[in-house]
Amino acid sequence: MSLATFKGGTHPYEGKELAEGSAIRKLDFEGNFFFPLSQGIGAPAKPVVAAGDHVKAGQIIAEAGGFVSANVLSSVSGTVKAIEPRMTANGLDSPCIVVESDGLYETAEGVGEKRDYTKLSGEEIIDIVKKAGIVGIGGAGFPTHVKLSPRFPEKVDYIIANGSECEPMLTSDYRLMLEEPEKLLGGMKVCLQIFPQAKGIIAIENNKPEAIKAVKEICAHEPNVEVVELKTKYPEGGERQLIYAVTGRTINSGVLPADAGCIVNNVATLAAIYDAVVNGIPLMEKVITISGDAVKEPCNVRVRLGASYDRILEAVGGIKEGITPAKYICGGPMMGQALFSLSIPVTKPSSALLAFLYDEVSENPTTACIRCGRCVEVCPEFLVPTLLAKAAENRDLEKFEKLEGMECVECGSCSYICPARRPLTQSFKVMRKKVAEQRRIRAAEAKQREAQAAEAKAQAENKKEEK
After folding, report:
1. Within 10 Å of residue 391's Cβ, how many Cβ atoms?
2. Which CATH class is domain 285-356?
3. What is the pTM of this model?
4. C-alpha distance from residue 221 to each of 187, 196, 215 (Å)
5. Under DSSP, is residue 436 helix (H, G, I), strand (E, B) or coil?
6. Which CATH superfamily, name and number, covers 16-278?
7. Residues 366, 423: contact at Cβ < 8 Å?
8. pLDDT tens digits, residue range 89-129?
C-alpha cells in the first residue's frame, strides 16, 4: 500500500518507545495554578476577575481580547490570589491569573450538561467552542472558533484530523487515539455538522499501528470519514505538509488552509471539541508526555491547565537518581523550547516535558558551512537554507524576503541535518520576526499616509466651498 507523504523532511530518532506503553493517568494538585492571558496565537485575553474573587472550574476568568483570541478558563475552584507577571515556556514574563485551588473542584454553572450536537446549528457549535476557550492543542495555539469560521464555508471539502504526532518522544496523541478514539471521531462528526458537504480524514503516521487499528475500527461504519496512513517522516504533521500528503493541494504563507478547501485540527483538539459541544466540558485539562533519557518513569499524564511542570515531574517519579539533566525542553526536541526553569505552567498548546542527559546543541561546537546541501534536501518548503543563513548573518531583511524566507515553517529539519551544527532555524526565527515587524510598520505608515491624504483632500474641498 502506498503511504501518503510529502517531499523533503528527515528521520530523527523517534524515541516513542520511552512512553508509548504508558496509559494516560490523571494527576491532581492543590496549591497555586497559573493561567497566562496569552496561550496561543492572537491577542491576549482580558481578565474579568480580580484578586479575592472566588472562581469555579470551567468559569471564564479572562475573555478573548479580539477576534483572533481565546477565552481563558479556570481549571480549579478556589480564590484569585493575584494577576501578575510569571515566567512562561518562552523564558519571558507574561501576565498570569493566579488561582489558589481549594481542592474541591466545584464546577461553574452549565459545566457537564450534555447536548445533542445534531440539533445544533453551525453557529451554535462555533459559539460553544469559543466559550470553551479551545485553541489548537497540537502546539500552534490558533483559536479554534476562528478556524471553524472561514470566509467561504461552502468551499471547505476536507476536515483533516492531524494524528501524525511526528515530533520525536511525544506520545500523548498516540495514547489518546488508542484509549479514547470515540472522542476523536465524535469531534470530527461535530465539525462535519458545521460543514456537511465536507469529508473527514483522520491521518496517522504508520509508526502507530495500534492507534490506526483502533481508529479504523471505530470509523468502520462511518462512510464520510476515512483513515489515511502516512509515511513516518518529520515534519509530516506540519499543516502544509499534511494537506499536501492527504489531498495533493499546496498552500503557502499567503494562503489559509480553508482557501484550499481544508480545515486541519489536531486529534486532541477534536477530542476537546467533542467534550465541549457534547459533554459540556470546556478546555480545562491536557494530556502531556513526560519523557527523555533522564526521566525516571516516562509517561503520559492528564493534568489541569495552570499546573507547574516541577510539580508534575515530581509526581511521576522525577529524574533518575544521581543525575542532573543537561537540558529540559517544553514540547518536542525539534520545535520545542529549552527551559530556564520548571516553575512554569502547563498551557493549552503544551505537549510535553522532556529531560535529557546530553545537550547536543551546547556540547557540539558550530563550524563553518561546508556547502554539503543536506539542508536543501530536507527542507519541506524547498528553500535554500544556506542562502537564507547568509542573509541572516548580514541582517539583510530584503534579501531574506526575496529568498522566500517567510515561507520557512521553523520545523528545524535544516538544523538537525546540518553536520556543521549551525543554528539555522534559530536565525530564521529571528529574521522572520524582524520582517513581520517591518511589514507592520510599513502597513501602519501607509495607513497614516492614506489618512493624511484624505484629511488634506477634505480640507481642500472645504476651502473650495468657502470660496
Report:
1. 20
2. alpha beta
3. 0.94
4. 16, 17, 11
5. helix
6. NADH-ubiquinone oxidoreductase 51kDa subunit (3.40.50.11540)
7. yes
8. 888 899 999 999 999 999 999 999 999 999 999 999 999 99
